[in-house]
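Structural prep section.
Before we set up the soaks we want a predicted structure of the protein with magnesium ion in place, mainly to decide which crystallisation condition to try first. Input record follows.
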Amino acid sequence: MRFSEAFIHTLKEAPSDATLPSHIYLVRGSFIQGIGAGLYNFLPLGKKVLDKVRAIAKEELDKAGCQEVDLAFVTPSELWKESGRYEKYGKELLRFKDRKDAEFVLGPTHEEMMVNLVRSFIKSYKQLPINLYQIKTKFRDEIRPRFGLMRGREFLMKDGYSFHKDEADMIENGFNKMEKTYSNIFKRLGLDFRIVEADSGAIGGSGSKEFMALADSGEDTIVVCESCDYGANIEAAIRAKREAPKYSEGEEVEMTGGKFLTPNIKTIDELADFFHIDKYYLVKAVAKKALYDEGVEKIVVFFIRGCEELEETKACNAVNANELIDVSEDELKEAGLTPGYIGLTNLPQGIDYIIDNELRGAKQLIAGANEENYHQLDVRIPDYGDKFKDIIVVQEGDICAKCGGKLKHTKGIEIGHIFQLGTRYSEPLKAEFLDENGKSKPFVMGTYGIGISRLLAAIVEQSHDDKGPIWTKTTAPFDLEIIISNIKKEEEKKLGEELYAKLQEEGVDVLLDDRKERFGFKIKDYELLGIPYAIIIGKKLADGLIEIVDRKTLNKEEIQVDKILEVIKEKLA
Ligand code: ATP
Ligand code: MG
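Run finished without errors. Recording the C-alpha cells verbatim:
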C-alpha cells in the first residue's frame, strides 16, 4: 500500500473522553472512529488488525474441530422468552418491534439461537459432540460504555457453543479443549495472560474460567497467589479462613450480654473506637435491594465481620437475584429496620438475610440491636443452616486456601470466558437427543466467548510507549514500512520503489511512505501506526547505507543497501 493513496488519517489530538492509551492511539492512528457512546467505525488499519486477530482465532478453533456458522443478528424474542432470559437480561438487551409489531432483540450473545439451531437437526447421541461458533457483531446496551473498544455497545465477539451427551464429555471434549485452544490463540497474539476461576452466577461451582490479559488499566480485579498458581476473579475468589486477632488492644468494655447504649454510634469505625475492640468482633450489616423477575424486589441484609467488605456478585448469587441495588434509609425504616443499628436479633418479619460463612459459630460479637442507639453485646451466631454463604471480598494479604501462601490483587482485562453450562438452556428450550438406550435427554452444553474487538485494546494496553502502539508481528497492520525521507530525491525514490516491489513479491505486506511530507512528520506517523519495522531511505544512501528502525526499541541499525532484503527477511521470520 502507498501511504499517498491510503485511507490513513492520523490525528494530533485524542478524543476528550479517551483516558487509556489503547483508546487514544487507536483513534489517533485512525484505526477506529468513534461515532457515539460505545459505537465505533473500523477504518482500513483497524479492520486489518481486527481481521488478523479474527483469522488467528478461526485457525485455532477450526484446528480444534469447531465449525463456524453465522446466525442472524436480529433474533426473535420468542426464543428469549422460552429460555426465561427476556426478562432477566435487563436493559443491556435491546428490544424492538418490526412493522408488524413482532418483537425482536439484537443478539447480545447467542445461546438461545444456537440451541434452537441444534435442536432442529441433532437427534441422536451418535451425532455428538458438536462445537459451533461464530465471530459476529453483538449489541449490549451497556450502562457505561467506555475505554474505546474495551467496553463498546456494538462489538465483535467470538461465541462458541458445544453440545454433548453427558457432563464428562462436555468437560473433556468441550471445556478443557477450549481452555487449550484459547491459550493457543492468546499466545499467538503475543499476550501476557492468566487463566482464573470466574463467577459462574447462580449455577455456582468451578465451571467457569476467564482469560485475563494482565494490565493496570484492566476493569477486573483478580486475586492471585504469590506462591502457587491459584488465580481467581475477585467475584469468585476464596481464601483460607481469617485467623482471629487479639480481642482488644485497649481498655475493654465488660461484656455481659444484652443491650448496650451506643448513642449516635453507627459506623463500624465508631463502634470499634467506642468499645476498643478489633473490627473482627463486630458484625457489619449491609442492606441491599434485590431485584427479581417480573419487577419483584426484596430487601436483603448481608451480615459480615466488621473487618470485611461485601462482594456484590457473590451476594447477588447468594440470593439468586438478577441485580442488587442500594436501598435508602427511608426504605429501610419503612421495612421496620433501624439504619445504623441493624443486627441479627429482632429482624423484622419478611426481611431476608444472608450471613457470611466465616461467621458460622462465631462468639463474643457486637451487633446492632435493631433499635435506635443500641447495640447487642456478646452475640453468638447459632446454626442458621443455609443462610451461610461466602459473600466477602478476598483482601490483599489474605491466605491462599490452596497452599497457605499470600494472596494479592492485580488487574486484568477479560479477553475470554469459558463456561460449563450444563442443561441451563437445553432444558427450558426442550433441546433433546436420544441416548444409547433410546431415552430422551437434554444436551449438556458449554459456552465459550472471546472479545475479538476488545483484544485490539488489550494488545495495545500491554504493548505501547509514549508515542503509540507497538503491534506484535502477528497483529500489526503492516509487516513493514518503507520511509522515503525526501521524495524529491530521485535516488531515494528509486530505491524505495524497487524495495517496495521486491518485498511485495516476496509476500511481505509493506506500507510505502511516498508522501511529499517532511521526514519528521513521517516518522511520527510511523510511530503512531506501530508497525514492527521501518526502512529509512535517507541521506546516508550516498554512502550506500540505509537504516532499519525497530518499533519496539526505536533503535536504528545501519545496513548496506545490498544486504537489506536478507536482513528484513530474517527479522520478519
Ligand atoms: P464483562 O464482565 O467485561 O462485561 P461479560 O462477562 O459480560 O464481560 P461475556 O458475556 O462472557 O462477557 O462475553 C464474552 C467476551 O466478550 C468477554 O470475555 C469479553 O472479552 C467480551 N465482551 C463482553 N462485553 C463486551 C463489551 N461491552 N465490549 C467489548 N467486548 C466485550
Ligand atoms: Mg458484561
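Observations: DSSP finds 13 helices and 29 strands in the chain.
Flagged for discussion at group meeting.
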